[in-house]
Amino acid sequence: MLKVTVDRNICAGHALCQARCPEVYGADELGYCVILMEDVPDSLREQVELGAKSCPEGAIKVTEVK
Predict the structure, then answer these.
(1) pTM of the entire structure?
(2) What is the average per-residue pLDDT within 29-44?
(3) Angle formed at CA 58 by CA 55 and CA 64, multiple of 5 degrees
(4) In 3D, which of 28, 9, 65, 29 has the Cα closest to residue 48?
């Protein structure tokens, strides 16, 4: 299981994360990232990590939860 968080003070609203994994990354009314699923199953690991890596600001953190 993975835990996903976003630092909304850093997010610039590029939505690159959302393009990579729309099941987990969404956008608010201003276009900034919102996490739709904080506890992510391993089946979405690759997409979630790709979404986090695609953030130019590095606003998204993905951590392993046991």
Answers:
(1) 0.91
(2) 94
(3) 100
(4) 65
